[in-house]
Design a protein that fits this description.
By secondary structure, this protein is α+β, with helices and mostly antiparallel strands. It has 17 helices and 15 strands. Helix 16 packs across helix 17. GO terms for molecular function: DNA-binding transcription factor activity; RNA binding.
Length: 410
């Protein structure tokens, strides 16, 4: 009966861990065999009989009867006199099966059995969780905010699985409260010390691509293909789409009437500005579309260096560059080309790097980051705007402006 009682005790884990009875029994057999190996040196001559329906377990040790005084291995052999105590008519050479009670293993072994079982069940659960989420990598998943830390948000799904969303995988404008439901993609799943570490991201371009699949039926059905997605999370994104069906307007279908279809995606991403453009193999046209809403006058492409010189009217330059240089940066990422902006009628302009004797390189780079690489492009903005866009000190910006103005004052 003590076997049955212990099995029932072990079976408590079945409900707690949502593990099926058959799997539990398989783990039990493995745990018991390990215990038998430790006590008897081998488990090869033991039969373990498990009844999953009743939760019962029996252990039988099989030994060969040998003459008295000739027992060499007490685990595999039994003397004739000992065998006949079990059954009087046993003879030399016959097999004897004797039931092993749990109490025979010793109290310490029984405690070790329980700990080993707990460990094996956790290992089984963790392996299953790892496999389950590994298959979900790159898919959208929803979980509930459980705990908010400085560097990460800890989420729990409906089954109690822990999911981590680090700060750098969140959209800057994200604000969470405990109990909020959060959508993101399963970005990565790793086993660390037999524990699955599941990372969710809302900042990945793949999240935006998957939102298009969820929210736009033509993308879900494969009638519209999302060729590439680039984004600055919470600020701006560009999505290149096309369709093999000429009757479908891919951009119109994605945006919807008055933006009705894309509105939900924009809201999900914290009002991220999303440009949807038609993909094309025509590189000139693709770069032109990527710089939208700016209107390009002409393009000169160098395929070896992967650079494109784009000529724009002065009033289009700020549109091409965008706030904080986001538009031109994303256009470059989308097309794979470094884009240089040139202004019409700027023949007399001077590139900023020509002032390297008077302006430090790191300051020039700060202006170049937002697409301002010539003297006149800087002078087109007032000082307050330049300070805001570059994060440079007022004194530094004033110094640069004075130097640039002197260039044109003759």
């Amino acid at each position: 009966m003590e076997n049955l009682a212990l099995i029932d005790s072990f079976s408590e884990f079945k409900d707690d861990k949502l593990i099926d009875r058959v799997t539990l029994m398989a783990i039990l057999e493995d745990v018991f065999r390990n215990a038998l190996k430790k006590k008897y040196g081998s488990d090869d001559n033991f039969d373990i009989i498990i009844n999953p329906d009743k939760g019962d377990l029996e252990i039988w040790r099989n030994r060969i009867v040998v003459a008295d005084g000739e027992v060499e291995d007490s685990n595999e052999e039994i003397s004739l006199s000992e065998a006949q105590k079990i059954e009087p008519d046993f003879e030399i050479g016959e097999d004897v099966s004797e039931e092993v009670k749990l109490i025979d293993l010793g109290r310490r072994s029984i405690l070790a059995l329980r700990q080993n079982l707990i460990s094996k069940i956790h290992e089984h659960d963790n392996t299953n969780i790892y496999k389950q989420f590994k298959e979900l990598e790159g898919d959208i998943y929803t979980a509930e905010v459980h705990h908010i830390r400085h560097r990460a948000v800890i989420l729990l799904d409906d089954e109690g699985n822990e999911i981590i969303m680090p700060k750098d995988r969140q959209i800057p404008s994200d604000f969470f409260r405990k109990g909020d439901n959060v959508r993101g993609i399963i970005e990565s799943v790793e086993l660390k010390g037999n524990k699955p570490v599941i990372i969710m991201s809302r900042a990945s371009p793949i999240f935006l691509e998957k939102l298009f699949e969820q929210e736009i039926p033509e993308v879900f059905d494969g009638l519209i293909n999302v060729q590439k997605v680039v984004r600055i999370p919470g600020e701006k994104a560009k999505v290149a789409v096309d369709s093999y069906d000429d009757r479908i307007d891919p951009v119109g279908a994605c945006v919807g009437m008055k933006g009705s279809r894309i509105h939900g995606i924009v809201r999900e991403l914290g009002n991220e500005n999303i440009d949807v453009i038609n993909y094309t193999n025509n590189l000139n046209l693709f770069i032109t579309r990527a710089l939208s809403p700016a209107k390009v006058t002409s393009i000169k492409i160098d395929e070896e260096t992967k650079r494109a010189e784009v000529l724009l009217r002065p009033e289009e330059v700020s549109k091409a560059i965008g706030r904080g240089g986001h538009n031109i940066r994303l256009a470059g990422q989308l097309t794979g080309y470094e884009i240089d902006v040139l202004r019409e009628g700027a023949e007399e302009d001077v590139e900023l790097r020509e002032f390297s004797d008077e302006i430090e390189d790191w300051i020039i780079k700060e202006f170049q980051k937002i697409g301002l690489d010539t003297a006149k492009s800087v002078l087109e903005y007032d000082m307050a705007d330049l300070i805001k866009r570059t994060d440079l000190e007022e004194e530094t910006v004033k110094h640069v402006i004075n130097i640039l103005k002197e260039e044109f004052e003759e």
